[in-house]
Amino acid sequence: MSNAEHQAPWGNDLCFCIGGKMFAAFDTNHGDYETFQATPETFALLIQQPGIRPAPYAARYHWVSIRDPKALPQKALEELIEESYQIVAARLPRKLRKKLEME
Q1: How far apart are CA 43 and CA 52, in angstroms?
Q2: CATH number of 4-99: 3.40.50.10190, 3.30.2350.10, 3.90.1150.30, 3.40.228.10?
Q3: Per residue in 56-71, is it b (16+ CB within 10 Å) or e — as a string?
Q4: Confidence of residue 32 (pLDDT cuts 50, 70, 90)
Q5: Residue 29: phi, psi to the nearest 5?
Q6: pTM
C-alpha cells in the first residue's frame, strides 16, 4: 500500500488514507475495532458474521466494523484492508493517481 498515510483526526482513532481519502481506521485506545470499506458483495457477507457489523455512519458506503478481534483471521483482515485501499485509490481523480504514480 504505497502512498498510504496515517492520521489521528479523532484523537484515539488511527486512520489510514490515500490521496486524502480514508480507507481504514483503527481504535488505538481500546483496540476493540477495525473499520474499512468493502465491495458491496463482501460487505453483505461480512455483516452476517458474528463480531462484524455495518460501520456507524458509513454502512451505506459499504464500510464494516470488526468488533471482535477473533472474527477474522489476521491474513483475511490484511487482504480486506488491501482491498479497501484499492477501492478508495481507484476512485481518486486521475490527475492525483498520476501524481501518486499509481498509473
Answers
A1: 10
A2: 3.90.1150.30
A3: eebeeebbbbbeeeeb
A4: low
A5: -80, -55
A6: 0.87
